[in-house]
Amino acid sequence: MTADVAVVGFAQSPVAVRDDATTSGVEMLVPTIAEAFGACGITKSDIGFWCSGSSDYLAGRAFSFVSAVDAIGAVPPTMESHVEMDGAWALYEAWVKVLTGDADIALAYGFGKSSGAELRRVMALQLDPYLVAPLWPDSVSVAALQARLGLEAGRWTEKDMAEVAARSRAAAASNPAAQVSGSVSAADLLARPYVAEPLRAHDCAPVGDGAAVVIMASAARARDLCERPAWITGFAHRIDSGSLGARDLLAAPSAAGAWSAAGGGSGAPVDVAELHAPFTHQEILLREAMELGDDVTVSPSGGALCGNPMFAAGLARIGEAARAVMSGRAGRALGHATSGPALQQNLVCVMSGEDS
User: Could you name the CATH architecture of 119-206+231-352?
Assistant: First the structure.
């Protein structure tokens, strides 16, 4: 299969909890976009389509994404769109624009300032508005229900979960954008208290603010902007029921379906998989759903467990996977993003260093 679109640039801001009075989406985006432009040798006038991912609920005000347009400039007028989702879904829309010939170069960005609110409660707004959301179950507690089901079914142990966290933190030591990193043993992590049994703090992605930017280009322009583009050979997303009681929380059919639709398993194996798993047990579940073997390097950036800026973390996973291809560290890689409770929605982007 010939790839018509490639990722040619990626940048992300350092993930951190920032002072409530400073660092809006614009302040995070301006230097991040500038970094991505510098790597590709372009300016904003070269971008034919922009698409952003963010949430008014997280910002606490209507049409908050409009203010982020200040980061790209409202003049001269440009073709721009927005999704109330992680920036990974904005990238999908941008990919379609390039595929259809509406733009030769497109930029997707995602941003979120999670520290300005009580994130665990804000995330309850994504639940079934009739039966579940009125109970205000927080996002960590919902994930804890899923983790407990897996423990009781013998799918994983608390030690398995701690080992995921320890490996992620060790990998993140080389990632300057990571919020949490360092060498720690699984035994030390298991000695720490629960935050929502059976989840401990290391089992949960930290609350942090950040932004991510990915630039993609058509086949006609990609090699002008990047020495080794990450050619998109498959891109798909799927969704499971939003009702927690209507699906098996120990299966992720939308992840398996998106992986299959994106060409996963049908071609050459991937070398790197950047998985958007905000909880340790979810990485285990995703690896099983996508049948990723031990020969696949999972989340060498540290993943969401070491930095999970809402509405940017999924886009960053695709960017990190693309970076692995562009740097030559991987011949084929997948970037994954999730949204919704307990891995309800999943998106997979497969990239290769070759365009066919």
Answer: 3-Layer(aba) Sandwich (3.40)
